Amino acid sequence: MTPPIISKEHLPLNHKKANSGEDEGLNSSIEQLKCLLAPEFLKQQQPDSKLEKADILEMMTLNFQLTCCQSRLLQVCA
């Protein structure tokens, strides 16, 4: 027996509000990450282009990887 198919019309209205709240929280976190980016990363962008969420996450990942590598090198050299 197959489960019934539920369309978007059958979802409760508070589900849409919950998703909106999640998006708002995610957008806020992305903006906080953007503020943490080093100015060098931000200078790489075109002056009139908008940073996409994926770009910000990619830059933060690269920054984190560089920081980890530097930290490991300092531990090895010490």
From TrEMBL:
GO MF terms listed in the record are: protein dimerization activity
Disordered, as annotated region: 1-25
UniProt-listed InterPro entries? bHLH_dom, HLH_DNA-bd_sf
Domain of life according to the entry: Eukaryota
Q: Tell me which residues make up the BHLH domain.
A: 26-59
List membrane-spanning regions.
none
Q: What is this protein called?
A: BHLH domain-containing protein
Instruction: Write down the species.
Output: Culter alburnus
